[in-house]
Amino acid sequence: MSQLVPPHGSPSLKPLLLQGEEREEELKRAKGLKRVPMTSRETSDLIMMGIGAFTPLGGFMGRDDWKSCCDDFKMVSKKGLFWPIPITLSAEQATADGIAAGSEIALVDTETDTLMGTMKVSEKYGIDKKHECERVFRTTDEAHPGVQKVMDQGPVNLAGPVKVLSESYYPERFDIYQRPAEARKAFEDRGWSTVAALQLRNPMHGSHAYLAWVAIEVCDGVYLHQLVGKLKAGDIPAEVRVKAIEALVSKYFRKERVIQGGYPMEMRYAGPREALLHGSSVRITAAAISSWAVTMPVSVTTMAPSTRRRSSTRSPRTPCACAPRYGLDLLLLRVRRDGLYEDLPARLQGGHRR
User: Fold this and answer.
1) Which domain holds residue 36?
2) Which of 63, 138, 173, 202 is catalytic?
Protein backbone atom coordinates (compact mmCIF):
# COMPACT_ATOMS: atom_id res chain seq x y z
CA MET A 1 0.00 0.00 0.00
CA SER A 2 1.34 3.41 -0.97
CA GLN A 3 2.44 5.70 1.87
CA LEU A 4 2.09 8.75 -0.37
CA VAL A 5 -0.84 11.06 0.15
CA PRO A 6 -3.61 11.08 -2.47
CA PRO A 7 -3.73 13.83 -5.09
CA HIS A 8 -5.51 17.11 -4.37
CA GLY A 9 -9.26 16.54 -4.31
CA SER A 10 -9.19 12.92 -5.46
CA PRO A 11 -8.26 9.49 -4.10
CA SER A 12 -6.22 8.84 -7.25
CA LEU A 13 -4.76 10.57 -10.30
CA LYS A 14 -7.17 11.32 -13.13
CA PRO A 15 -5.14 11.67 -16.34
CA LEU A 16 -7.23 12.50 -19.40
CA LEU A 17 -4.61 11.58 -22.02
CA LEU A 18 -5.80 8.79 -24.31
CA GLN A 19 -3.44 5.98 -25.24
CA GLY A 20 -3.16 3.27 -27.88
CA GLU A 21 -6.17 2.31 -29.99
CA GLU A 22 -8.48 4.62 -28.05
CA ARG A 23 -6.28 7.58 -29.01
CA GLU A 24 -6.08 6.52 -32.67
CA GLU A 25 -9.85 6.21 -32.89
CA GLU A 26 -10.36 9.64 -31.32
CA LEU A 27 -7.82 11.20 -33.69
CA LYS A 28 -9.74 9.87 -36.68
CA ARG A 29 -13.04 11.09 -35.29
CA ALA A 30 -11.61 14.52 -34.44
CA LYS A 31 -10.78 15.20 -38.09
CA GLY A 32 -14.48 15.66 -38.78
CA LEU A 33 -15.10 18.04 -35.86
CA LYS A 34 -15.17 21.84 -35.85
CA ARG A 35 -11.68 23.12 -35.00
CA VAL A 36 -11.31 25.61 -32.16
CA PRO A 37 -7.91 27.32 -31.75
CA MET A 38 -6.25 27.46 -28.34
CA THR A 39 -3.69 29.91 -26.95
CA SER A 40 -0.40 28.61 -25.56
CA ARG A 41 -1.78 28.95 -22.02
CA GLU A 42 -4.93 26.99 -22.85
CA THR A 43 -2.80 24.34 -24.57
CA SER A 44 -0.56 23.95 -21.53
CA ASP A 45 -3.62 23.72 -19.27
CA LEU A 46 -5.03 20.97 -21.50
CA ILE A 47 -1.76 19.03 -21.27
CA MET A 48 -1.76 19.46 -17.49
CA MET A 49 -5.21 17.87 -17.42
CA GLY A 50 -4.00 15.19 -19.80
CA ILE A 51 -1.16 14.02 -17.57
CA GLY A 52 -3.28 14.25 -14.42
CA ALA A 53 -1.44 17.26 -13.00
CA PHE A 54 -4.75 19.13 -12.69
CA THR A 55 -6.56 16.25 -10.98
CA PRO A 56 -9.52 16.21 -10.37
CA LEU A 57 -10.45 18.52 -13.28
CA GLY A 58 -12.24 16.73 -16.12
CA GLY A 59 -12.27 19.66 -18.53
CA PHE A 60 -12.45 23.41 -18.89
CA MET A 61 -14.54 25.20 -16.25
CA GLY A 62 -18.09 26.49 -16.57
CA ARG A 63 -19.30 29.88 -15.42
CA ASP A 64 -20.10 28.91 -11.83
CA ASP A 65 -16.62 27.46 -11.29
CA TRP A 66 -14.99 30.41 -13.09
CA LYS A 67 -16.73 32.87 -10.77
CA SER A 68 -16.19 30.90 -7.57
CA CYS A 69 -12.48 30.42 -8.36
CA CYS A 70 -12.10 34.15 -8.99
CA ASP A 71 -14.04 35.23 -5.92
CA ASP A 72 -13.68 32.43 -3.39
CA PHE A 73 -10.79 30.15 -4.46
CA LYS A 74 -13.27 27.27 -4.77
CA MET A 75 -14.97 25.04 -7.34
CA VAL A 76 -18.69 24.72 -6.72
CA SER A 77 -18.89 21.69 -9.02
CA LYS A 78 -16.41 19.88 -6.76
CA LYS A 79 -18.21 20.57 -3.46
CA GLY A 80 -16.14 23.64 -2.69
CA LEU A 81 -12.74 22.13 -3.53
CA PHE A 82 -9.95 24.67 -3.19
CA TRP A 83 -8.77 25.98 -6.58
CA PRO A 84 -7.12 29.42 -6.82
CA ILE A 85 -7.19 30.26 -10.55
CA PRO A 86 -9.88 29.43 -13.14
CA ILE A 87 -8.91 27.00 -15.90
CA THR A 88 -10.88 28.12 -18.94
CA LEU A 89 -11.04 27.97 -22.74
CA SER A 90 -11.97 31.07 -24.73
CA ALA A 91 -13.29 31.54 -28.26
CA GLU A 92 -14.07 34.38 -30.61
CA GLN A 93 -17.75 35.31 -30.89
CA ALA A 94 -18.11 34.04 -34.46
CA THR A 95 -16.56 30.70 -33.49
CA ALA A 96 -18.75 30.33 -30.42
CA ASP A 97 -21.90 31.21 -32.38
CA GLY A 98 -21.30 28.19 -34.58
CA ILE A 99 -21.08 25.79 -31.65
CA ALA A 100 -24.18 24.37 -29.99
CA ALA A 101 -24.27 23.08 -26.45
CA GLY A 102 -23.83 19.32 -26.56
CA SER A 103 -21.73 19.36 -29.72
CA GLU A 104 -18.12 18.19 -29.90
CA ILE A 105 -15.14 20.21 -31.05
CA ALA A 106 -11.48 19.60 -31.90
CA LEU A 107 -8.94 21.62 -29.89
CA VAL A 108 -5.96 22.88 -31.88
CA ASP A 109 -2.78 24.56 -30.63
CA THR A 110 -2.36 27.73 -32.70
CA GLU A 111 1.43 27.84 -32.24
CA THR A 112 2.16 24.35 -33.60
CA ASP A 113 -1.10 23.63 -35.48
CA THR A 114 -1.29 20.38 -33.52
CA LEU A 115 -4.56 18.63 -32.78
CA MET A 116 -4.38 18.50 -28.98
CA GLY A 117 -7.73 17.06 -27.94
CA THR A 118 -11.50 17.05 -28.18
CA MET A 119 -14.20 18.52 -25.98
CA LYS A 120 -17.94 18.04 -25.59
CA VAL A 121 -19.29 21.53 -25.06
CA SER A 122 -21.58 21.67 -22.06
CA GLU A 123 -21.78 25.46 -21.70
CA LYS A 124 -21.02 28.75 -23.44
CA TYR A 125 -20.77 31.92 -21.37
CA GLY A 126 -19.37 35.42 -21.39
CA ILE A 127 -17.14 36.71 -18.61
CA ASP A 128 -16.08 40.01 -17.11
CA LYS A 129 -12.38 39.99 -18.00
CA LYS A 130 -11.58 42.97 -15.79
CA HIS A 131 -13.19 41.24 -12.83
CA GLU A 132 -11.04 38.15 -13.39
CA CYS A 133 -7.90 40.28 -13.62
CA GLU A 134 -8.76 42.30 -10.52
CA ARG A 135 -9.36 39.16 -8.49
CA VAL A 136 -6.54 36.96 -9.81
CA PHE A 137 -3.79 39.52 -10.55
CA ARG A 138 -4.92 42.41 -8.35
CA THR A 139 -4.50 44.73 -11.33
CA THR A 140 -6.04 45.49 -14.73
CA ASP A 141 -2.84 47.01 -16.11
CA GLU A 142 -2.32 45.38 -19.51
CA ALA A 143 1.43 45.80 -19.17
CA HIS A 144 1.16 42.83 -16.81
CA PRO A 145 1.72 39.66 -18.91
CA GLY A 146 -1.03 37.68 -17.21
CA VAL A 147 -3.56 40.49 -17.53
CA GLN A 148 -2.68 40.96 -21.18
CA LYS A 149 -3.29 37.25 -21.80
CA VAL A 150 -6.76 37.42 -20.25
CA MET A 151 -7.71 40.66 -22.00
CA ASP A 152 -6.64 39.20 -25.36
CA GLN A 153 -8.96 36.21 -24.94
CA GLY A 154 -12.08 35.83 -27.02
CA PRO A 155 -15.30 37.14 -25.41
CA VAL A 156 -16.88 33.69 -24.91
CA ASN A 157 -15.72 30.80 -22.75
CA LEU A 158 -16.47 27.20 -23.71
CA ALA A 159 -16.78 24.58 -20.99
CA GLY A 160 -16.96 20.82 -20.97
CA PRO A 161 -15.14 17.51 -20.49
CA VAL A 162 -12.05 16.90 -22.61
CA LYS A 163 -10.11 14.03 -24.10
CA VAL A 164 -6.40 14.80 -24.53
CA LEU A 165 -4.54 13.46 -27.57
CA SER A 166 -1.08 15.01 -27.37
CA GLU A 167 1.58 16.30 -24.98
CA SER A 168 2.98 18.48 -27.76
CA TYR A 169 6.78 18.78 -27.91
CA TYR A 170 7.45 18.53 -24.17
CA PRO A 171 8.47 14.84 -23.89
CA GLU A 172 10.99 15.21 -26.72
CA ARG A 173 12.35 18.64 -25.84
CA PHE A 174 12.94 18.12 -22.12
CA ASP A 175 14.65 15.04 -20.67
CA ILE A 176 13.32 15.94 -17.22
CA TYR A 177 9.66 16.05 -18.39
CA GLN A 178 7.76 13.88 -15.96
CA ARG A 179 4.13 12.92 -15.52
CA PRO A 180 2.66 12.74 -11.99
CA ALA A 181 2.30 8.96 -12.15
CA GLU A 182 5.99 8.66 -13.06
CA ALA A 183 7.05 10.94 -10.21
CA ARG A 184 4.99 9.02 -7.68
CA LYS A 185 6.41 5.71 -8.89
CA ALA A 186 9.95 7.08 -8.56
CA PHE A 187 9.27 8.01 -4.94
CA GLU A 188 7.81 4.62 -4.15
CA ASP A 189 10.69 2.83 -5.88
CA ARG A 190 13.08 4.68 -3.55
CA GLY A 191 10.96 3.96 -0.52
CA TRP A 192 10.23 7.63 0.13
CA SER A 193 7.23 8.45 2.29
CA THR A 194 8.19 12.04 3.10
CA VAL A 195 9.00 14.34 0.19
CA ALA A 196 9.84 18.03 0.07
CA ALA A 197 9.00 19.69 -3.25
CA LEU A 198 10.70 22.85 -4.50
CA GLN A 199 9.00 24.49 -7.50
CA LEU A 200 11.31 26.44 -9.80
CA ARG A 201 10.96 28.67 -12.84
CA ASN A 202 14.45 30.18 -12.55
CA PRO A 203 17.91 28.69 -11.98
CA MET A 204 18.48 27.77 -8.35
CA HIS A 205 19.77 30.63 -6.19
CA GLY A 206 22.14 29.85 -3.35
CA SER A 207 19.19 30.17 -1.00
CA HIS A 208 17.08 27.75 -3.09
CA ALA A 209 19.84 25.17 -2.75
CA TYR A 210 20.10 25.88 0.96
CA LEU A 211 16.38 25.26 1.41
CA ALA A 212 16.72 21.96 -0.41
CA TRP A 213 19.59 20.93 1.84
CA VAL A 214 17.48 21.84 4.87
CA ALA A 215 14.62 19.75 3.52
CA ILE A 216 16.87 16.73 3.10
CA GLU A 217 17.53 16.92 6.85
CA VAL A 218 13.85 16.37 7.67
CA CYS A 219 12.54 14.37 4.69
CA ASP A 220 13.42 11.25 2.76
CA GLY A 221 14.17 13.26 -0.36
CA VAL A 222 13.67 16.42 -2.38
CA TYR A 223 11.72 16.82 -5.61
CA LEU A 224 12.88 19.70 -7.83
CA HIS A 225 9.72 20.52 -9.75
CA GLN A 226 10.73 22.64 -12.74
CA LEU A 227 8.30 24.58 -14.90
CA VAL A 228 9.09 24.06 -18.58
CA GLY A 229 6.02 25.82 -19.99
CA LYS A 230 6.02 29.20 -21.70
CA LEU A 231 7.38 32.27 -19.89
CA LYS A 232 7.15 35.98 -20.56
CA ALA A 233 9.69 37.69 -22.79
CA GLY A 234 12.97 38.30 -21.01
CA ASP A 235 12.73 35.36 -18.60
CA ILE A 236 15.47 32.74 -18.63
CA PRO A 237 14.54 30.04 -21.19
CA ALA A 238 13.61 26.67 -19.75
CA GLU A 239 16.36 24.90 -21.70
CA VAL A 240 19.01 27.14 -20.10
CA ARG A 241 17.55 26.83 -16.61
CA VAL A 242 17.35 23.04 -16.78
CA LYS A 243 21.06 22.85 -17.64
CA ALA A 244 21.97 25.30 -14.85
CA ILE A 245 20.06 23.34 -12.23
CA GLU A 246 21.50 20.04 -13.43
CA ALA A 247 25.02 21.45 -13.07
CA LEU A 248 24.31 22.48 -9.47
CA VAL A 249 22.56 19.24 -8.53
CA SER A 250 25.25 17.02 -10.05
CA LYS A 251 27.99 18.72 -8.02
CA TYR A 252 26.35 19.59 -4.71
CA PHE A 253 23.53 17.07 -4.09
CA ARG A 254 23.50 13.39 -3.25
CA LYS A 255 21.83 11.71 -6.22
CA GLU A 256 19.91 9.25 -4.07
CA ARG A 257 18.20 12.10 -2.19
CA VAL A 258 16.96 14.24 -5.10
CA ILE A 259 14.70 13.75 -8.13
CA GLN A 260 14.13 16.31 -10.87
CA GLY A 261 10.94 16.60 -12.88
CA GLY A 262 9.60 19.07 -15.44
CA TYR A 263 5.97 20.02 -16.00
CA PRO A 264 4.31 21.93 -18.89
CA MET A 265 2.37 24.65 -17.09
CA GLU A 266 2.61 28.16 -18.53
CA MET A 267 3.37 30.96 -16.08
CA ARG A 268 0.51 33.34 -15.38
CA TYR A 269 2.48 35.67 -13.08
CA ALA A 270 -0.42 35.74 -10.63
CA GLY A 271 1.62 36.14 -7.45
CA PRO A 272 0.22 34.39 -4.37
CA ARG A 273 -2.61 32.78 -6.33
CA GLU A 274 -0.14 31.26 -8.73
CA ALA A 275 1.94 30.02 -5.81
CA LEU A 276 -1.14 28.19 -4.56
CA LEU A 277 -1.93 26.76 -8.01
CA HIS A 278 1.60 25.42 -8.38
CA GLY A 279 1.45 24.18 -4.79
CA SER A 280 -1.67 22.16 -5.62
CA SER A 281 0.10 20.75 -8.68
CA VAL A 282 3.11 19.86 -6.53
CA ARG A 283 0.87 17.90 -4.18
CA ILE A 284 -0.74 16.09 -7.12
CA THR A 285 2.58 15.34 -8.81
CA ALA A 286 5.11 15.09 -6.02
CA ALA A 287 2.86 13.51 -3.40
CA ALA A 288 4.77 15.78 -1.06
CA ILE A 289 3.20 14.30 1.95
CA SER A 290 2.65 12.39 5.05
CA SER A 291 5.55 14.79 5.02
CA TRP A 292 6.83 18.31 5.01
CA ALA A 293 6.70 20.22 1.75
CA VAL A 294 8.97 23.18 1.17
CA THR A 295 7.20 24.64 -1.80
CA MET A 296 7.03 27.91 -3.65
CA PRO A 297 9.77 30.29 -2.58
CA VAL A 298 8.02 33.50 -3.60
CA SER A 299 11.01 35.81 -3.44
CA VAL A 300 14.44 35.01 -2.12
CA THR A 301 17.47 37.17 -1.48
CA THR A 302 21.03 36.01 -2.00
CA MET A 303 22.61 34.26 0.95
CA ALA A 304 26.02 35.13 2.35
CA PRO A 305 28.76 33.02 0.70
CA SER A 306 29.73 31.46 4.03
CA THR A 307 26.28 29.84 4.36
CA ARG A 308 25.94 28.39 0.87
CA ARG A 309 27.59 25.06 1.58
CA ARG A 310 26.21 22.78 4.24
CA SER A 311 28.61 21.53 6.87
CA SER A 312 28.22 17.94 7.99
CA THR A 313 28.68 19.11 11.58
CA ARG A 314 26.15 21.94 11.47
CA SER A 315 23.33 21.67 13.96
CA PRO A 316 19.99 20.71 12.37
CA ARG A 317 18.52 23.73 14.16
CA THR A 318 20.80 26.17 12.39
CA PRO A 319 18.85 26.43 9.09
CA CYS A 320 15.62 27.52 10.70
CA ALA A 321 17.40 29.88 13.04
CA CYS A 322 19.42 31.60 10.32
CA ALA A 323 16.86 31.64 7.51
CA PRO A 324 15.10 34.88 8.59
CA ARG A 325 18.46 36.68 8.63
CA TYR A 326 18.74 36.24 4.88
CA GLY A 327 15.28 37.51 3.99
CA LEU A 328 13.82 34.22 2.81
CA ASP A 329 10.21 34.84 1.88
CA LEU A 330 8.81 31.33 1.85
CA LEU A 331 5.73 29.28 1.93
CA LEU A 332 6.83 26.60 4.41
CA LEU A 333 4.16 24.01 4.86
CA ARG A 334 3.61 20.75 6.55
CA VAL A 335 1.05 18.81 4.57
CA ARG A 336 -0.50 15.88 6.36
CA ARG A 337 -2.48 12.98 5.02
CA ASP A 338 -5.71 14.58 6.21
CA GLY A 339 -5.02 17.63 4.07
CA LEU A 340 -4.25 20.09 6.87
CA TYR A 341 -1.52 22.65 6.35
CA GLU A 342 0.71 23.48 9.34
CA ASP A 343 3.82 25.59 9.79
CA LEU A 344 7.10 23.74 9.30
CA PRO A 345 9.59 25.92 11.25
CA ALA A 346 8.62 24.43 14.61
CA ARG A 347 9.40 20.98 13.25
CA LEU A 348 12.77 22.15 11.93
CA GLN A 349 13.61 23.54 15.37
CA GLY A 350 12.84 20.20 16.95
CA GLY A 351 15.22 17.96 15.05
CA HIS A 352 15.80 16.24 11.74
CA ARG A 353 15.69 12.95 9.96
CA ARG A 354 17.85 11.58 7.20
Assistant:
1) 20-166
2) 202
